[in-house]
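Reopening this one. Same input as before:
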Amino acid sequence: MLKDITLGQYYPTNSKIHQLDPRVKLLFTFVFMAAIFTVDKFYPFALIVLFILFLAKASEIPIKYLVKGIKPLWAILLITFLINAMLTPGKLLFDFQFGFLKVTVEGLRIGCFMIIRLVLLVVGTSLLTLTTAPIELTDGIEKLLKPLQRIGVPAHEIAMMMTIALRFIPTLLDETDKIMKAQMARGADFESKNIVDRAKSLIPLLVPLFISAFRRADELAIAMESRCYRGGVGRTRMNEIVLSRRDIISFSVASLLMILIAATRFFPFGI
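Same output, byte for byte:
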């Protein structure tokens, strides 16, 4: 299950999407998220799915690899669906009600709508880290935050912290998997149906995981200091990112498509 999480991982290929400026991909991710939360009908989601499939094909990332990232979220998706289906007022779907819990037609619609929205949000935003190397992501965030340096915002430090956090997600997941296997070899039960027993078994997992995380953070700090890292002041880069015409055209076309999809909110037809 832990190996199915794709957030923070980088999928190295030489596709056209990988070659785009990281600032373009960051800004478009925000446009994509805004469009996802603006849509209030089902049929625009079909257009977004087609667009995500196109991006996956263009970036040479297997569809199975993208879908794999949804598996760890099944519990969140199920809880989201049940909460909306049972707590939304409306017309009863079945002639049955248990206290304030009831299944309504409106609740089922909203539940399905929220599941689709969450799935598309996770799959779409994961394309950012899958197609952008950590160092490029750092440079892109720093470039976007650079104008805020005039008011005292530490752009480089913020970019570095965000990138390190994303980069260490797969590392910590691998460490968690190793610790779980070691604890299971010693008799720990992480698959028990009893929730209390499963919660107790997490204690010998969390303690070594926190120790490992702090140790890795300390090792990273020492490694950065030994290489004379002093932040963004006076720091140069081997490869400077430059915004090209292709980047501008790609961002304009993709953003225009997302704006048109978001504008379906104001269309009187559709469900």
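So the earlier flakiness isn't reproducible anymore. For the record, The mean pLDDT is 81.
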